[in-house]
Amino acid sequence: MALIKKEFVPVVITVHGECKDAEGAFWKSFCKDYAWITGAAHGVTPSGKVLCAKEKQSSCGGRSVCDPQKALQKWLALPEEERKPGAVKVDDLQEMDANYPKRPAGSIILKGYNRPLDRGADGHHKRLKEYRDCQELGKDDSNWQTFKDPEPGRVWLWFSEEQWKSILPREPQVGKTTPLPDAVADRMVRLTLLNTIY
Amino acid sequence: MKWMAAILLLAAQDPGRARPEPFEENFALVKASPGEARWDEIEWTTSLWEGRKKAAAEGKPLFIWAANGNPLGLT
Lengths: 198, 75
Hints:
heterodimer, A: two-stranded antiparallel sheet, two-stranded antiparallel sheet, 6 helices, extended, B: mainly alpha, 2 domains, 3 helices
């Protein structure tokens, strides 16, 4: 982690389709099979040159993970002229794909976490040591995997200004609870937390 | 998630056994413990373009983590 922090600019993105703007074109320039990605990591120069040891492994399909140490070695092997600050000119992004979801003005984000728990013999919750889940479709319709010591899943739930104002108590007080309408609770618990990332 | 659903169902069916626990206790169980999710200690840039601009200006390569469900949860 220290290597990534110090030597790279770390970027995390969601890819769920083609982004029709300069950002999408940059992505497509080095990520040929970009339409389906699951947990892939890439080392790339600002000009779009792939830095991973084997270029095919850094393509966007599957679960390829780029070794940051090897990517750094490849970066350092490039000519100084390609690496020095300002060697690549990157202008501001003038236009974004209109289909890119934009956070509405006045909205808030509720950050949520979830993790599979079990109830111990003492009646208290405890973390599961192992967790089995169907991750993706396979030949037999499902592909079950076992995860050891699963990290919490995370989800960001957007509420428009109109939505959050509709559930805010008239006189909010610290520590005071208030019931949520069923539709809101349903959206938060059933429609969001049940489809998250582990 | 099926375990979670099962726990919620159990709570509805057997209130004597699945008594409510303090929110803080469950929250601490669910959230990552210190050092558990080391990737979360990295200050990730969430815009590929802004990351590219920064990398070009600082003379660094990009390390891109891409998924069809954002690892940070911001979907």
